[in-house]
Amino acid sequence: MAIQLVTTAARLRTESARLLKAKGGTSQGLVPTMGALHEGHAELARTAVEENDVVVVSIFVNPLQFGEAVDLERYPRTLDADLALLDAAGVDLVFAPDVDEVYPGGEPLVRISAGPMAGKWEGASRPGHFDGALTVVAKLLHYGMPGAAAGAELPAYRAYFGQKDAQQLALVQRMVADLNFPVEIIPVPIVRSADGLALSSRNRFLSAEEREAALVLSRALRLIEERANAHQPLDLESVQALVESQPLVDLDYLDVVDPRTLEPLAENCRDTPFRGEGLALIAAKVGPVRLIDNVPLDS
Hints:
Blueprint: E1 4-6, H1 9-23, E2 27-33, H2 39-51, E3 54-59, H3 69-74, H4 79-89, E4 93-95, H5 99-102, H6 122-125, H7 129-143, E5 156-162, H8 166-178, E6 184-188, H9 208-229, H10 236-244, E7 249-257, H11 268-271, E8 277-286, E9 289-298
Parallel strand pairs: 1-4, 2-3, 2-5, 3-4, 5-6
Antiparallel strand pairs: 7-8, 8-9
């Protein structure tokens, strides 16, 4: 069956319920996106299709997440290509609402507050970004929630997020736990190109020279991972020096944090053997493009 495009929440509820009934389904998956899809999004979609009877992918460029109007306008819109990619992945429904559908009457007066976890890392350079992100994710989680026929059990409900946006993922997991959303959040590992660069919709804005320079981010993370796996001191100063040796890269932050709270780990993991869990985070501007990456540590 060909993929189906819907643009209103009412139609989404009707069609997802119809598909669940037609398939005798017991589970529904949601993959929230802002479009401009790439192989990383395809992996999210394929994972959802493998684990659910009905899969919905949302495509919505959320204005609340953009600090500058020019950035919102610049964000690529590639709906036809996105639909082709999702159809190949086996997705059932694409929910692509316009702004008036999601925010009737204008920007919402009541929003989700991302709290103290959002005040650092990405949130430090993008004030208010995560409030906007969580507000729209909360709405999308409601839109994508499956219904049940009278007397039947509610289908299982899962939502899929990429681990590349590690801070967003941690905040979504915290929001779902703190506010008792009836959904299971499924993290999906980062998809990388053959040379190690984490896939991102922003990569298309890199020149060939800038893209080559950007590879230092994944090299830095691999070095931290290798040291952690070998139970060596992480020595972040030397890793930072590696990144800063690349003149086209302007480092914003590099640190190792608790994967649940995003708080920096104790200083002793820098100069004593690393053991336990952590998450290495990096962000930098490469030419005009801001890139983020991360790697989980578990030794």
